[in-house]
Write a structure and sequence with these properties.
This protein is of the alpha/beta class. Helices cover 16% and strands 34% of the residues. A hairpin with a 4-residue loop joins strand 5 and strand 6.
Length: 257
């Protein structure tokens, strides 16, 4: 898939949580955004930060073709992301896109599909869920968070399908981790997952035990996004690979978990 380096204009910067902001971007000249697939990511340049020299990898949260917008869900994780969170309407952000591979489309239209997200790992699940619905599937979601106030984009997910929630303190949905949510005991044919590594490994374990096909989107540290710097190398059954080029999406059977 062809890659682009584009100057995109900030349409909206909306704080959705004390640690997260939603950036909505569009082309500055009105041209259509390039094709982007669910599961892919972008690398954004960070200007105005003395401690930030490398681009930052951000999952594609949504692509709204009607408004020609790219959505990026940004978590406050350091100087680079704080600079991104401070962007204002009409500011320009240089973006390299689309990068990496995508989630695979289920073969059976009647498959029971569960999309699992924890923390900022919910980001790629929104676009993927919307695309699945558009293709005639009926995806369900499982969102994990520490508390009710940490559940991200719930209203957007509910527009697409049924949403189950697990919170560690029990203030929303079921109390506990996503791996103990009762939705996992229902009939499921395929799981897609993104979030902290321990969460993904736990979901992968459940999937293997129940013989459910499962894909995960890894969040390894990335610097270049093109397979040159080797920051994101992951050990797989085929040896070490760069997550930015061979992933970020992997079938769990490809990993050495």
């Amino acid at each position: 898939m062809k890659k682009y380096i584009l100057d995109l204009k900030v349409v909206e910067n909306r704080r959705v949580h004390e640690l997260y902001t939603l950036l909505k971007l569009t082309t500055h000249d009105g041209s259509a955004l390039p094709e982007m697939l669910p599961g892919q990511f972008v690398q954004v340049a960070v200007d105005g930060s003395k401690t930030t020299f490398l681009r930052r990898p951000i999952s594609i949260n949504n692509v709204d073709r009607l408004s020609n917008q790219l959505w990026l869900l940004i978590r406050n994780a350091g100087d680079g992301t704080r600079a991104l969170m401070a962007l204002k309407e009409d500011d320009i952000l240089n973006v390299m896109l689309p990068l990496g591979n995508a989630f695979s489309i289920p073969q059976n239209a009647n498959d029971s599909i569960l999309l699992v997200g924890g923390g900022v790992g919910v980001a790629p699940m929104l676009y993927w869920g919307a695309q699945l619905k558009e293709k005639g599937f009926a995806p369900q979601f499982l969102i994990g968070a520490r508390s009710a106030k940490d559940v991200l984009q719930l209203d957007e997910f509910e527009k697409i399908g049924k949403v189950a929630v697990s919170t560690e303190d029990g203030t929303m949905g079921e109390k506990g981790l996503v791996t103990t949510n009762s939705i996992l005991s229902t009939s499921i044919d395929k799981i897609y997952c993104c979030g902290p590594a321990p969460m993904m490994k736990a979901i992968a374990k459940v999937a293997k035990e129940r013989e459910i096909e499962c894909e995960v989107s890894l969040e390894n540290m990335m610097a270049c996004g093109l397979g040159a710097c080797l920051c994101c190398v992951e050990n797989t059954v085929k040896g070490n690979v760069c997550v930015c080029t061979e992933g970020p999406v992997f079938n769990i059977n490809e990993l050495t978990w």
